[in-house]
Amino acid sequence: MSILATDDQHVGHHLWPRVRRWIAVLVVALTFAALLAAGGAWLGWRSAPALPGDRQARELVAAFVPGMSVDAADRNDMIFGSADPQVGELIGGVDEYDPGWVSLYAAWPGPDIAAARVALDQGGWETREDPATGAVTARRDSLELSVYSDGVIFHRPEPALVPMLALIGWGGGLLLGGWVALRFSRRSQPSQARFLARTGTVLLLLCTIEVTVGLLLPWPAPTPPDGPSALWEPYMSMLVRPFALAGLLCWVLAGVLRWSPRAARSTREWTHFLFG
Question: What parts of the sequence cross the membrane (predicted)?
Answer without folding.
Answer: 22-45, 160-182, 202-219, 239-259
